[in-house]
What does this fold into?
Amino acid sequence: MDLNELFRCHQLALIAARANDRPETRAAAAREADNFASQIKALRPEGAEYRSVLSSRTYSELLGA
It folds into this structure.
């Protein structure tokens, strides 16, 4: 998977985490987003500085969830 695809999957996982009402589904999507974020950071450490690469925990804090 190339970097662009990782960014896309990461964003979709964050959207899924936000869109789900069931806690277990939200948690699974959040774990998936964190996994994609760590893959992005491993491939391109400077890419982790982009605002679009957030861990799901950071994203949840921004949403106040």
Summary: The helical segments are 3-19, 23-43, 56-63. The chain has a mean pLDDT of 75.
